[in-house]
Amino acid sequence: MGLDILEYRKLGHLHVSVIGLGTLRVFDVTDESDLILRRQIIENLLSNGINFIDSAAMYGASEKTVGITIEGKRDQFYLATKVRVEGKEAGEQQIAQSFENFGVDYIDLFQVHNLIDTQTHLPTLERLKEEGKIGMIGVTAMVDEAYPEVMEIMRSGRIDTVQIPYNVVQREVERGILPLAEELGVGVMVMEPLKKGRYVKELKSKPDLTPLKEFGVETWAQALLSWVISDPRVGITIPATSRPERINENAVSGTLGILPQELRDYVREETVRLL
Ligand SMILES: NC(=O)c1ccc[n+]([C@@H]2O[C@H](COP(=O)([O-])OP(=O)(O)OC[C@H]3O[C@@H](n4cnc5c(N)ncnc54)[C@H](OP(=O)(O)O)[C@@H]3O)[C@@H](O)[C@H]2O)c1
Fold first, then answer.
1. What residues form DSSP beta bridges with 191?
2. pLDDT (tens digit, 9 = 90+) per residue, 181-192?
3. Can you give the residue ranges of every domain in the chain?
4. Radius of gyration for the alpha carbons in the chain, expressed in angstroms and rounded
5. Tens digit of each residue's pLDDT (9 = 90 or more) over 13-41
6. Are 139 and 159 in contact, with CB atoms under 8 Å apart?
7. Contact at 8 Å (CB) between 42 and 242?
8. Distance 190 CA to ligand 1 centre (A)
């Protein structure tokens, strides 16, 4: 069963692996011993065909760590990051710093973090796009109350992608953002597919994987990731990890294809039962 190879989907004009990498907390490191593990993570991304990394100016040393660990391999990844500050000049400075941190002269996707001062940053990002320094513009939002504003910006035609939480418990985007994204052709990136790891690490007991085994799911993290990307309106999800072996584990979910509805329901019900 499944596709056997990692699936790629459209995200704006990019062709991205359906599983990417998030770097919040896990790439905020500076010690050489920590960098060794992050280099191994990058190697494992490449060997699995994962081609997308998301970071942000506000993730401590993450952008720098991405820059250091992809040195010489930059052309094998799409890089996304975010501006999160108020004011035009402060925004321009932070954006310039992201280029420096990554050590690149082109960033594939620049997002406005949690809609902070969006109307100020959009013209800056639009100018950079016109100058060929960034490829796409996006916004991120993580609370339901922000979604009406996200949808208004989507309708304005000024953004290529949205990044939102979507997982077995947080499903608000099914009501507005996902249908609108499909209608407008806006790319959807899913943050927190494992709710910061909680839906794997903090369950009351071990979930029963038996019904999922036939589909190729071997771990609960794979079940949860598979649940997310089984909605075809999702372009990519970006689980973060500090452990290289989990890149291999998470990549498997991108090779399984779309979960049948009854298994998708099972993954949601089993997670809720054990929370
Ligand atoms: N507002 C925003 O724009 C925003 C907000 C939140 C997140 N994001 C983006 O979305 C990305 C993902 O969100 P997130 O990092 O908060 O949460 P997440 O991806 O749901 O969970 C990450 C956690 O899950 C654990 N994990 C990963 N794979 C696992 C596996 N196979 N088995 C068990 N545990 C596993 C990791 O722990 P280990 O290190 O122990 O593997 C890590 O601590 C972020 O890194 C960031 O890039 C954006």
1. 165
2. 999 999 999 999
3. 8-200+231-257
4. 18
5. 999 999 999 999 999 999 999 999 999 99
6. yes
7. no
8. 11
Q: Per the structure block, which two tokens stand in for 203?
A: 């369950």
The DSSP code sequence of 240-261 is: B-S-HHHHHHHHHHTTS-PPPH
Does 253 contact ligand 1 (Cβ within 6 A)?
no
Indicate if ligand 1 lies below 6 Å from the C-beta of 63.
no
- Alpha carbon 181 to its chain centroid, in Å, reads 16
Class for domain 8-200+231-257, per CATH?
A: alpha beta
Closest residue by Cα to atom 36, ligand 1, is 241
Q: For residue 152, count other CB atoms closer than 10 A to its CB.
A: 9
Contact 65, 101 (CB under 8 A): no
Tokens 């979910």 correspond to 253
Cα angle 190-193-268, degrees, rounded to a multiple of 5: 120
Assess whether the C-beta atom of 200 lies below 6 angstroms from ligand 1: yes
What residues form DSSP beta bridges with 109?
Answer: 80, 136
- What are the φ and ψ backbone dihedral angles of 240, each rounded to 5 degrees? -95, 145
State if residue 114 touches ligand 1 by the CB under 6 angstroms criterion: yes
Residue with tokens 């909605």: 231
- Asked if residues 259 and 227 have their Cβ atoms less than 8 Å apart, the reply is yes
**What is the reported pLDDT for 1?**
59
**Ramachandran region, residue 198 (left: φ > 0; alpha: ψ -120 to 50; beta: rest):** alpha
Mutational test site, ligand 1, from 192, 206, 224, 228, max ligand atoms within 8 Å of CB? 192
Give 212-265 pLDDT, tens digit per residue: 999 999 999 999 999 999 999 999 999 999 999 999 999 999 999 999 999 999
